[in-house]
Amino acid sequence: MADPPRGKRTVEHSPIILIDSDGPATSLESLRFDMREAQHRMKNMVAIVQAIARQTMRNAETMAEFEKMFTGRLNSFCFSIDRLVDTDWVGMDVRELVVGQLAPFVSLERPQLEVNGPDVWLNPTAAHNIGMALHELAANATKYGALSVSEGKVRVAWKFIDDKRQSLQLSWNESDGPPVVQATQSGFGRRILEQIVPAAVFGHTVYEFESTGVRWTLDLPHTALVTPQG
Known about the structure:
This protein is an alpha+beta fold. It is built from 5 helices and 10 strands, in the order ββααβαββαββαβββ. Strands 4-6-7-9-8 form a 5-stranded mixed sheet, with helices on one face. The chain has a 3-stranded antiparallel sheet with strand order 3-5-10.
């Protein structure tokens, strides 16, 4: 083929293909889809962080209190997101979620904490919402409840509640702590436990201030559970 005239260039149009050495070629359209999905998730995460900040500000009496509460809630949210990214947004193991969310407050190696349940994974929505609930429960227990005294104990357990092993119940039980005093006002933490989390996972929750300690249970439908890959 003759060279093009000087000062002019020819461009041959062809589809752009990104080659993955470990897999098949990925088209530009597929890449665009992944980018749109990532953008959608990013917008959702920003909206959640903004909501956490606004709600925390409403209930904080001082800037120092706001900073402490917001930092804790943000770290809790980021922990769940980090683990979900590690699994390519498939879901998260319940035990890993529980131990990770409670790590800033109490170690699994300490006798104060008991964690027990079968191997089961939660979908992303259930994982980060339940993660927020666990953070609120642990923060309250550290400030007012069983984790505020050395002899106090917390038991976190989950079990299937039907013969087909599809529905799951997660429970938080405190014991041997100081006398329980029920809150007179409903703050953001309580709304997370009683309204936001059950609505997000289409579940049912019970939050009780018993004389023996705080008790919180969450019943989850099969739609909140996933089968891990691999």
